[in-house]
Specification:
about 300 residues; alpha/beta; Spore Coat Polysaccharide Biosynthesis Protein SpsA, Chain A; 2 domains; 9-stranded mixed β-sheet; two-stranded antiparallel sheet; 9 helices; 11 strands; about 40% helix
Length: about 300
């Protein structure tokens, strides 16, 4: 038995496509169970879930407290089987998704975490720079196309597609202090924070490229502004998980490291030069670095002001 769990907050735009795709799965040898946690949605999420109650092996839960990790924690008592697969409400799995996870777990029982490949399902044609970044594992939780199967670093695992031994949850839960919480400026890193703790406890992790899903990318998400906002949140999460160490007398401007403010201006100018030269990929790459570092510095300033 494999339990598959996901949470949803106002996921009505992608849930029909996702749930329909789950009906095409080849079931693993010992069966599977689907757990959906409605995290206080205000759209048609609950109605859509209930349309599949007799089609899929589906258990629907409701978590009133905002936050993806609060919703995941509420599902723990409902886990069944030796492994739990975590995913999102906007994926399309390959038909053999769970079969390949089952085979990998059987042949590699020494590992506690298994990560699968994440490609993309574009609802609208993306710009060329975004296609290239997706291939490199730099867009919307995708994995690099050239990432080989085998031992994987916890920092490279993507949230929409991972499997964990269920007995881990006898001692470990998800942190409610990080991850999506229904706001637009949350600190990203829900699964990453969880995986970091498992890594620190000595759990090994395996990448299984055959266990593949596609991450649904909506038209709005092709926009540069949406990509940069995502990387800003990722930067905030990175600083929360791996804090930057500075000297106590570090010169600052408005609470930010002075050297970084100077570098920021240089990077903006460099990005503009690439854009004028017609190299949108390099221009966007610099802007992504700016967004990520900006997120880190905003979170760093916030943490230091609380001290």
């Amino acid at each position: 038995m494999i339990s598959v769990v996901f949470t949803s907050f106002n996921g009505a735009k992608t849930l029909p496509l996702m749930l329909n795709s789950l009906t095409t799965l080849t079931p693993p040898k010992n069966g599977w169970k689907l757990i959906a946690v409605d995290n206080s949605s205000t759209d048609e999420t609950n109605d859509i879930l209930n349309q599949f109650i007799d089609i899929l092996p589906l258990t629907i839960l409701f978590e009133k407290k905002p936050g993806k990790n609060n919703a995941l924690n509420s599902a723990i008592p409902y886990f069944e089987g030796e492994h739990v697969v975590f995913t999102d409400d906007d994926i399309i799995p390959a038909p053999d998704w769970l079969i390949n996870y089952e085979i990998a777990a059987k042949n590699n029982d020494q590992h506690s975490v298994f990560a699968g490949q994440v490609r993309h399902h574009w609802l609208s044609p993306p710009p060329k720079w975004l296609i290239q970044m997706a291939a490199e594992g730099r867009a919307y939780a995708g994995t690099p196309l050239d990432l080989p199967g085998g031992i994987i670093d916890w920092k490279k695992i993507k949230g929409p597609n991972l499997m964990v031994k269920s007995d881990i949850f006898e001692h470990v839960m998800f942190s409610p202090d990080i991850g999506p919480d229904g706001t637009t400026n949350y600190v990203a890193g829900s699964e990453t924070e969880f995986l970091k703790r498992l890594h620190n406890k000595g759990h090994s992790m395996l990448f299984v490229p055959e266990a593949s899903v596609q991450h649904i990318v909506r038209k709005k998400q092709n926009q540069l502004s949406t990509v940069l906002k995502r990387y800003f949140r990722i930067g905030k999460g990175a600083e929360r998980l791996m804090p930057t160490q500075y000297e106590q007398d570090l010169p600052t401007i408005l609470g930010f490291p002075r050297y970084w403010v100077k570098q920021l201006l240089t990077d903006i100018f460099q990005s503009a030069r690439y854009l004028v030269a017609g190299n949108s990929y390099q221009a966007v790459s610099i802007l992504i670095s700016i967004a990520t570092e900006s997120g880190r510095k905003v979170e760093w300033r916030s943490i230091n002001r609380k001290r």
